[in-house]
Amino acid sequence: MPGIDKLPIEETFEDSPQTRSLLGVFEEDAAAISKYSQQLFQAMHRIYDAQNELSAATHLTSKLLKEYEKQRFPLCCDDEVMSSTLQQFAKVIDELSSCHAVLSTQLADAMMFPITQFKERDLKEILTLKEVFQIASDDHDMAVNRYSRLSKRRDNEKVKGEVMEDVYTSRKKQHQTMMHYFTALNTLQYKKKMSLLEPLLGYMQAQVHQPMTSSTCPTLTPAWFLSTATSHARPATSTLASKK
Amino acid sequence: MPGIDKLPIEETFEDSPQTRSLLGVFEEDAAAISKYSQQLFQAMHRIYDAQNELSAATHLTSKLLKEYEKQRFPLCCDDEVMSSTLQQFAKVIDELSSCHAVLSTQLADAMMFPITQFKERDLKEILTLKEVFQIASDDHDMAVNRYSRLSKRRDNEKVKGEVMEDVYTSRKKQHQTMMHYFTALNTLQYKKKMSLLEPLLGYMQAQVHQPMTSSTCPTLTPAWFLSTATSHARPATSTLASKK
User: Which residues form the BAR domain (chains A, B) (predicted)?
Assistant: First the structure.
């Protein structure tokens, strides 16, 4: 991919002020990405929660309609018609409810999964590595400090050797964590666009393939309304016809 | 409408135990209807709230995408492409958001309005009239009691006249409120089916005429995805072609 900024990993050994200032820019960028994607995550989570709630509420409604028959209404004249009508309605609303449930699942898989992964894995990794790098940096600074004080006091060879060993280990550690940290920040630059676009595409594709259209929810069409109206109107018409 | 049970208003004057026991049955039925429609109201309110939340969350998402340009990312290589892509996405999600908003409005008008009216007007009226009738009944019982004690003690004509006047007024009042109460209970019998069916029809019609289908949301179709993919792929192809 051309045009993507990279932190030069080969510079981690020298650890110059220039490298540090470049690191600062990348850290700022990572923080901005993190903030923006956090906002997007929250908005998407609201969509997802609302879709789940819609699915649950629709299911509850159809359940209530099915329970109409079991209600004890002391006055229940021609409740047969009412019951069968509500059963038909319940069937339609049931279908809508499963359409909503399918949409919820699609949103979970195609929208929530990628953005949660990005947030919980990639962005969290950078925060962790930042801390680890900070600790390694502090350790190294401490070791170097001790070494510089040591040379003035001219201690014995054994202590000198220990302190030098300490500087070596801590610098090695700092170099390693810095390389890891740089790699993670570079990876973020490669991933950032896809990580924002993927959940959005997932959301939109779930909407496009939304099963709530007439092709997959065959019952709920204007034609269904007509047929229901006709089937209920027919007895009345035949009564009229027989009267003639 | 044939087959609908009615409380005989002409019996309110006599106020026999039979009438009272029939009233009890109607009151029980009204309580059952009230309970059932309260449950339905709650389920529908959940649907409505979820739909509103979905609309708001979708709007927020599209707003966030539009704000991408204004974000300060220190590293912003070829952000032009990203910005324009997100603008396109924002446009689609904006459309979806207004579709959701239209659906919310439809649910408010065709589902929430009738069921709220039924709950707040018809069912509440019955509760109020029940109380008023209870008070008038108690007043009447008190007046009759006083009258019965009066005849034993043989008071003077003036007091007797007052008490009889009291019995007359309270019986008239009781008769009137009982007629009102009976009328309200009879009206409920006529209204109950329509009041349950109307909001359900409103809900289903809002779903059928849901503007989220491709005819009214022209942007979000599989074809749109293809065209977006093509328009982004084309520059690459032309670059290849020019290289040949």
Answer: 7-208
Cα–Cα distance measured from residue B108 to residue B121, given in angstroms and rounded to the nearest whole number? 17
Residue B73 burial (10 A CB sphere; 0-12, 13-18, 19+): middle
Q: Which residues of B93-129 are buried (b: 16+ CB within 10 A; e: fewer)?
A: bbbbbbbbbbbbebbbebbbebbeebbeebbeebeeb
Q: With an 8 Å Cβ cutoff, are B204 and A92 in contact?
A: yes
CA distance B203 to chain A (A): 9
Q: Does residue B82 sit at the A interface (CB-CB below 8 Å)?
A: yes
Nearest to A9 by CA among A203, A176, A173, A145: A176
**pLDDT tens for residues A35-63?**
999 999 999 999 999 999 999 999 999 99
Q: What is the pLDDT of residues A187-241, one digit of tens each?
A: 999 999 899 999 999 999 898 766 554 444 545 555 655 555 545 544 433 333 4
**Token pair of A14 as six digits:** 């020298």
Encode pLDDT of B137-194 as tens digits: 999 999 999 888 876 666 678 888 888 899 999 999 999 999 999 999 999 999 999 9
Domains of chain A: 17-70+77-226 (1.20.1270.60)
CB A217 within 8 A of CB A96: yes
